[in-house]
Amino acid sequence: MPFFAGDIFxxxxxxxxxxxxxxxxxxxxxxxxxxPGEPFPSVLTLLAVSGRETxxxxxxxxxxxxxxxxxxxxxxxxxxxxAAQATDILLSRDFLDKQIVDINGAKLVRVNDLKLxxxxxxxxxxxADMGLRGILRRLGLEARGxxxxxxxxxxxxHKLVGWNFVQTVEPKLTRLTLTVSRQKVSxxxxxxxxxxMSEISQKERRALFxxxxxxxASEALHELEPRVQxxxxxxxxxxxxxxxxxxxxxxxxxxxxxxLPEERAQQLIKLMxxxxxxxxxxxxxxxxxxxxxxxxxxxxxxxxxxxxEEAIKELxxxxxxxxxxxxxxxxxxxxxLKGVLSLKNLILAxxxxxxxxxxxxxxxxxxxxxxxxxxxEFISKYNYLAAPVVDENNVMHGIVTVDDVLAYLLPTASQKxxxxx
Length: 421
Description:
Elements: E1 8-9, E2 17-19, E3 25-34, E4 43-50, E5 53-58, E6 62-65, E7 70-72, E8 89-90, H1 91-95, E9 99-102, E10 107-110, E11 113-119, E12 122-129, H2 132-138, H3 142-150, E13 160-162, E14 166-168, H4 179-185, H5 190-199, H6 202-210, H7 214-223, H8 226-235, H9 238-246, H10 250-257, H11 262-271, H12 274-284, H13 291-294, E15 301-302, H14 308-318, E16 327-331, E17 337-342, H15 343-348, H16 355-358, E18 366-367, H17 372-382, E19 386-390, E20 396-401, H18 406-409
Parallel strand pairs: 2-7, 15-16, 18-19
Antiparallel strand pairs: 1-11, 2-3, 3-4, 3-8, 4-5, 6-7, 9-10, 9-14, 11-12, 12-13, 16-17, 19-20
Helix pairs in contact: 2-3, 5-7, 9-11, 10-12
């Protein structure tokens, strides 16, 4: 078993002489190969280079590995040059100066150095250094930099990210993307994930996006700029893209489809389930900056004669399939809106009461063709979380939620308005 003591940064051993067991130099340490599938990838082989020759040295043949000495249990004369495999994961080549996702900080960071340490008796990749200290260490200036900054009473910080909190974005490194990392990425806020995806290359974005589960992917997709949405949808197969859009709330799917060429959009809609396709198609028929274009047609509506007890039972069954539940709407057989009530009022009401007895009527509404400005002012005036949208016959078509008009209410907000390419 190789002897190694304490933590080692890869910059401290790269280009160090690698000696055979007689002390002859085999070459200089060029890189370190690690294996996939672990929270902390373990070292498999060392790559030593001498002139044009490369030697692949298995980790179990290494005698000593530290900052000063790297020695191999072999004779130079017995070693034969070999090349690293195309699928090998090399720490220096594949990670130094590359970008990774810091899942804890929900941001994209640059790898300035890599930390190796012992995990269960193995030498493993345990952390990425993303700070100034890592850069200075690679330049051989860490001690000097620390001393210089101390003159100004500034302590050089250690900015390390544990490798178990890292998500790779390089396509060829997806084998090193762990299940635990993918689960943590899925817990990032969609806006944070979208921001990260906007900062990486198209190739890296494709790899990261393909590692997401359907729900996370659909939420992140809606947060992206139309240009990036178009690139992602355009790279997907038609079937996969339609399945992704089908899993989204209809208003969000309509937003994305509205940014695609008409032919491509209709092609995707035809592959969606009939009910979802009809909902999306209906939304796309309205002008985008009107209540009809802003609304979602997913809302909870019950008949006037339904009791509170029955409504609560129905609510529990329907809730998983509805994105937003701020209010319950009471409609008749002609789908005309009769009244509205909040969840609080429903819960506090007596079980035997009928909805028509506890609803607020007439409900305040906005018209299908109401402009975004008017919808925003309506929501602001009445402090509503959602505004019901009706046509000239008072038939309810959907709701506009407060986040749909947030960009208008708060011009500096990060919410983007929909726009076509």
